[in-house]
């Protein structure tokens, strides 16, 4: 075996962090199995009651809404990001490439709160978008965008855009251009080449980008909380309300656990469903 | 296999032949990338059914020329005709050209049969006929029964054949092949060369074949276009390219050749006489037109055209054997001829007699046993 004298030094900080995370997860897990004592921060004995309560329509609905929101966000991001990623990979102009890269990636460097506030400025009744629409005469009165699912989705798309563009671009750049040329020489026009060759072959990037956007949206908190303003309830806002308004830590913990399991399940399902496509496309 | 000839072989190419049009014609086609000229005024006429090879070192513009014919690149100057029709502005998908890439570029997400059917589907042919023609194409490349496989389940040679079938099934006006065999191992390459040549002849499809392997070019082509630095240097049949190279680039790129220092002695019409040491040789006069009697020339002699003489014969060269290399059916002798050749001269002695008669260090005489000798002005004078 090769001696790696500094390996221990390099790995131990990461090991500590991993240990901390595992401990936190374990704590959440054990909280989820406790009895909630109203009016107290302490918890009671072990129970499965929290998980059973999850089946109540109120919570089931929150889960369903969250999944819907995640799908809508991921799908919107995909549709908006695909042309950008395509242009990024295919353009010959380095100016266009830099522009797309900067425009698509900067949201990564804005904190979630800053980004959310800027969307509140854009979406508010006296905000940028409404002022514009009214001035241009498209609408008479401001359209309600704050505190709606649409507003939340718009802001979340902004969050997931960079990672989606990057993953799609990675997928697109792996496509063998000769395949497209071959299709072209066989009589396929640009649209046919795109639909029969480029799109199926970019499936791995689409699956990766979509799953990531889905998972990010599922765990997003500040955006649905601030822009939804309590009127758009997701699993994470629900966890916040239960944990920090009612101090029902056990139930908040069990919601977290189920939320995590659910988002992993959806992603696994997604992977499974698109697997044939993905496998075909990646085997070059 | 002959069964398929009449069905698949009725390419549009042979019809155009009856009208006397070249299958492909390039009139002064130029392509630039930024400031660098990738192809400089290429003039080329390819006859229907002809197997034309583009031969040249890496970066000389072979792929560029192919891409221009296929329509993947736009020419900066000149015109391209396919079967007499101007196609310079025609997009690739309307040119009806079959193309095989070095990496095959099979569609990884489609079965072999669907790969081959792709070009037929774009033409809106009905399903029954597609199925029949796919089967024919598979039979043509000896892959019957492989239709349901995925490309990744095939060997390199099989993938190559699928790519060929996919390109041929649409009955292309021209078949373009860009170094199709360079990814195959040597044995497979040999058998694919034979197979391709056989299929090409059977179908009579006009073919442009790109390679930087001169052996491949010499053995397969009807004519070869030798290219260097974006220019076509010579277009001729393989034998003529080998025996009568048009310039010193072609002479040194195609086959092995010895360059000896000589002098122009006499010029009589088509033929000139040059001297190399005590030896006098007749060469074509055309390349030496700009020189005066007495000027230096470089004389190009193939290794197999040199012979060893015993002792000193008048009008021969003398040198010293530096190395002998046993090659099985022949012996390579490297001979030092001071004052005439800068590097040791390579001589190809048939049989194994030379092994004992010409040991390293022996003084030998050299004669030239062929009239396929060419001479060119020394390097600096080449335009
Ligand atoms: N898309 C491009 N952009 C800029 N320069 C290019 C491009 N394609 C080719 N070139 C240049 O044009 C010249 C000819 O390239 P080409 O690909 O035709 O060479 P080739 O003869 O096919 O070489 P090889 O045997 O290596 O494939 C090269 O100098 C190459 O660098
Ligand atoms: Mg090339």
Indicate the CATH architecture of the largest domain in chain B.
Answer: 3-Layer(aba) Sandwich
Uncertain stretches of 5 or more adjacent residues of chain B? 1-18
Strand order in the largest sheet of chain A: 1-2
CATH topology of the largest domain in chain B: Rossmann fold
Tell the overall outline of chain B. Answer: elongated
Provide the residue-averaged pLDDT of chain B: 87
Give the overall shape of chain A, derived from the CA principal axes: globular
Bound molecules: adenosine-5'-triphosphate, magnesium ion
Number of DSSP strands of chain A?
2
Strand order of the largest sheet of chain B: 6-7-8-3-9-10
Considering residues with a beta carbon less than 8 A from a beta carbon on another chain, report the largest interface and each chain's count: A-B, 24 and 29 residues
Question: Quick one: biggest sheet of chain B?
Answer: 6 strands, mixed
Radius of gyration of chain B: 25 Å
End-to-end CA span of chain B? 50 Å
Mean pLDDT of chain A: 87
User: How much helix is in the residues of chain B?
Assistant: 25-40%
Question: Uncertain runs of chain A with pLDDT below 50, 5 residues or more?
Answer: none
Number of helices of chain B: 11
Name given to the CATH homologous superfamily of the largest domain in chain B: P-loop containing nucleotide triphosphate hydrolases
Oligomeric nature of the chains: heterodimer
Work out the radius of gyration of chain A: 23 Å
Features of this protein?
heterodimer; A: 284 residues; mainly alpha; two-stranded antiparallel sheet; 13 helices; B: 383 residues; alpha+beta; Rossmann fold; OB fold (Dihydrolipoamide Acetyltransferase, E2P); 2 domains; 6-stranded mixed sheet; 5-stranded antiparallel sheet; 11 helices; 26% helix; 33% strand; disordered N terminus; binds adenosine-5'-triphosphate; binds magnesium ion
């Amino acid at each position: 075996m090769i001696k790696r004298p500094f390996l221990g030094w390099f790995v131990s900080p990461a090991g500590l962090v991993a240990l901390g995370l595992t401990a936190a997860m374990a704590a959440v897990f054990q909280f989820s199995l406790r009895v909630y004592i109203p009016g107290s921060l302490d918890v009671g004995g072990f129970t499965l009651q929290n998980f059973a309560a999850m089946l109540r329509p109120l919570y089931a609905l929150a889960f369903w809404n969250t999944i819907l929101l995640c799908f809508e966000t991921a799908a919107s991001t995909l549709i908006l990001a695909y042309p950008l990623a395509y242009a990024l990979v295919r353009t010959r102009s380095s100016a266009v490439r830099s522009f797309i890269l900067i425009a698509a990636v900067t949201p990564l460097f804005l904190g979630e709160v800053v980004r959310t506030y800027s969307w509140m400025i854009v979406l508010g009744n006296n905000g940028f978008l409404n002022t514009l629409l009214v001035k241009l005469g498209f609408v008479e009165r401001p359209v309600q965008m704050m505190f709606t699912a649409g507003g939340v989705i718009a802001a979340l798309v902004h969050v997931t855009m960079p990672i989606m563009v990057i993953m799609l671009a990675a997928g697109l750049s792996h496509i063998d251009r000769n395949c497209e040329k071959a299709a072209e020489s066989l009589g396929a026009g640009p649209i046919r080449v795109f639909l029969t060759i480029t799109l199926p072959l970019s499936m791995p990037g689409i699956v990766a980008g979509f799953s990531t956007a889905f998972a990010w949206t599922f765990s997003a908190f500040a955006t649905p909380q601030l822009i939804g303003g309590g009127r758009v309830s997701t699993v994470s806002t629900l966890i916040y309300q239960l944990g920090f308004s009612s101090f029902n830590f056990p139930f908040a913990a069990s919601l977290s656990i189920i939320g995590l399991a659910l988002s992993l399940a959806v992603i696994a399902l997604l992977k499974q469903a698109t697997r044939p496509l993905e496998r075909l496309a990646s085997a070059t | 296999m002959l069964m398929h000839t009449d069905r698949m072989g009725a390419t549009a190419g042979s019809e155009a032949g009856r009208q006397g049009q070249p299958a492909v014609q390039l009139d002064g086609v130029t392509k630039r990338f930024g400031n660098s000229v990738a192809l400089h005024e290429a003039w080329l006429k390819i006859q229907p059914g002809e197997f034309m090879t583009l031969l040249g070192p890496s970066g000389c513009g072979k792929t560029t020329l192919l891409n221009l014919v296929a329509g993947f690149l736009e020419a900066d100057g000149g015109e391209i005709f396919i079967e007499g029709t101007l196609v310079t502005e025609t997009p690739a998908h309307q040119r009806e050209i079959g193309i095989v890439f070095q990496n095959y570029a099979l569609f990884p997400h489609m079965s072999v049969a669907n790969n081959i059917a792709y070009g037929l589907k774009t033409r809106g042919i009905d399903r029954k006929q597609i199925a029949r023609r796919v089967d024919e194409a598979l039979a043509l490349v000896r892959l019957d029964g492989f239709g349901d496989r995925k490309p990744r389940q095939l060997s390199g040679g099989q993938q190559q054949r699928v790519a060929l079938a996919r390109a041929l099934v649409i009955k292309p006006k021209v078949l373009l092949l860009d170094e199709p065999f360079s990814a195959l191992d040597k044995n497979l390459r040999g058998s694919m060369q034979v197979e391709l040549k056989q299929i090409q002849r059977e179908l009579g499809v006009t073919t442009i074949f790109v390679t930087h392997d001169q052996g491949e070019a010499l053995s397969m082509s009807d004519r070869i276009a030798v290219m260097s630095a974006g220019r076509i240097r010579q277009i001729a049949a393989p034998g003529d390219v080998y025996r009568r190279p048009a310039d010193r680039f072609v002479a040194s790129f195609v086959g092995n050749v010895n360059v000896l220092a000589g002098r122009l002695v006499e010029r009589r019409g088509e033929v000139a006489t040059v001297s190399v040491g005590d030896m006098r040789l007749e060469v074509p006069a055309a390349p030496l037109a700009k020189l005066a009697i007495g000027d230096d020339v470089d004389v190009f002699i193939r290794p197999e055209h040199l012979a060893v003489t015993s002792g000193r014969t008048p009008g021969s060269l003398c040198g010293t054997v530096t190395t002998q290399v046993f090659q099985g059916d022949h012996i390579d002798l490297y001979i030092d001829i001071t004052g005439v050749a800068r590097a040791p001269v390579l001589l190809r002695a048939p049989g194994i007699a030379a092994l004992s008669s010409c040991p390293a260090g022996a003084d030998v005489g050299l004669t030239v046993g062929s009239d396929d000798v060419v001479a060119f002005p020394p390097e600096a004078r080449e335009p």
